[in-house]
Amino acid sequence: MSKITILCIEDEAEIRTLVVEELEDAGFATLQASNGREGLEMMLTKWPDIVICDITMPEMDGHQVLAEIQLNHPELSNVPFIFLTAMSDKDNMITGLQSGAADYLTKPIDFDILMAKITGCVTRIENDRKTGRAF
Amino acid sequence: MLRYEKQSKDAPPWLQAAGRKILRLGYSDHVIGEIIPDVLRVIVETVPLELIPKAAIYLKDKASMKETLAGFYNFHWSQIETLIEPAGNPHSVSDADSKLTRLQVPITAPGHEPLGTLVVYYGTEGEYGHLEALTDLVRDLATVVTHKLHSDDEQPRSARGTIIANGSATENPAMNDNVFELLRTTIDSFPGGICVLLDDLTVAMTNRRIYEILDLPEHMFPPGCNFADILRYYAERGEYGPGDVEKLAQARIRRAKLFVDHAFDRETVSGRVLEVRTTPISGGGCILTYLDVTARKRAERELMHHRDRLEDLVSKRTAEIEQQARKLEHLLDHERRVNEQQRQFVAMASHEFRTPLAIIDGAAQRLMRSKAEITPDFIGDKVDKIRGSVSRMVGLMNSILAVGRLDHGLIDINPEPCAIEELIRSCAANQRDITPSQRFILDLDNLPETIVADRSALHQVFTNLFSNAVKYAPGSPYVFIRGWTDATHVHVSVTDRGVGIDAEDLPKMFQRYFRARTSSGIAGTGIGLNLVQQIVELHKGKISVTSKIDQGTVFTVVLPIGIEQQPNSITPETQVA
Predict the structure, then answer these.
(1) Rounded to a whole number, what is the distance in Å from the CA of B426 to chain A's nearest CA?
(2) CATH class for the region spanning B327-405
(3) I need a surface site. Which of B6, B10, B559, B560 has the fewest CB within 10 A?
(4) In the record, which positions carry 4-aspartylphosphate (chain A) (predicted)?
């Protein structure tokens, strides 16, 4: 079974490297994008298994990325999409979850919770693979 | 029948050809409304030939269709020629000879042969009113005449003094006396003075009240006296103002003899106001009426005065209310802006503090969670991240505190000679240390060596501008900084090739916490430029911005070379505005 690949879309380099470091430490393959547009392109070309995405970013923000996936790339819409953002207000959270985000986590990041969410996603992905339900 | 004879000389051939049955009549239908509402008044005068009484005063109340006797006063005369002709249908034709229009109405009575036609000649419509009114009049007349012809059995009547009353005439002198008595009573009951003048100004008839109203001794001016004497008496008494009495009197006498239909107000020497009306009688003479309108005029004046005062008061109050509304609007506007600022501040602060906190917290967690061997490099990396974030937060706090201090007028600037070129170079160097890939192209040769300014404040200005030029131009490494001088000021422009600013956002760029649309996704507080502007303004300088989307932005700072009189701080009041 191939390694699970996780894409981290985050404009703050410092945060991105910390998240990537944590993910690699846990044995995942990682991809990095420093803004929404780059992240969207990577999703379309590299097909990551899980996406962790910031909201406030240049070029294209996190909401726009997810909306673009749902609207124009439905084949990617069951890729778990986790928001990881400093936007802690309810409006942003509701918008994100309504658009189909798997979860909405706020900064500062609690790595235990982030990793628990990832583990949950991984379990489902692996089950899907075993039963042939997805790609 | 002097009047008729006078007119008959001038009578056109058709009138003379009409033979024996000629009427003369006049009517009034407007002023009379003041005394007996909606009444049509007709006066018929016959020529001396035959048939129709010499004079008839006749009123027809249109509403009740009752015919009643009328008084003499206050009616408007127009003279119309009429004659009785063989019957025909009502129609109007132009008479070429007379240049008059001729309106014909048959005179009929139920159960009788047509008795003739009443014909009215009239000039222009403007002269005699509307054709419709005229037609009505003639119809009424025709009815009266018919009635007369019928009831009088075609017997010639005495021409003089017969009056048609209540639709029937009488030749009984006692009855006629009665009618005259009735007329006198009517005139006496008029609330003002009435005076009937003949064409030589002889006073033919008056009522009693006129002596009272004109303040005239009755014994001096009994009916039969001449009105000219009254005018002379008045002139002597000073009623017509100062001047030669005889001249004043003659002027009045001349005017009175014109018998023009008119009305005016006159103030007497005793201070009363009289409303005087002159109503000409056909063929000469007139009827004068006098009403004491002193009380009414006074009331009118008072009313006017009150109305004027009320208008003043209302407009004053309105102005006050408008001013208050404007003030409130202004306050509300201010309140809205403050609220909007507050909201923007909370959103900004929450995001801008959380990001470095996330880095600090993330680095600390990584130190704990790392599964690999912890190397000094690993620790060093995390510590750098933590310290970097802490200093980012300190910077954030400082700028928030700085605007807070500015708001409260607590920031002083201490102007002293300041090496501007060196200051700009050092700010650029600092920024390059933070973002080594950036290229600053400096052209500062035309700056003076020093200007009078607060060095640390200007340091903040240029640091902010340079870091913006880098921050909002991802992937464009060049920032152009140019300095030049005019007689009194230095100019420094900072040009980037960055994301640019919407034209709509440009005017708001220096508002506190405002962030342009194009800044979305780029960390920032919306404080920097506001702070920069305030510092520049404390130096009596100016800052401006021009920009094009996707092409870049130019900020230009203009500072006086020497500040003559330096305010130490700005007051909170100037902040609000």
Answers:
(1) 27
(2) mainly alpha
(3) B10
(4) 54
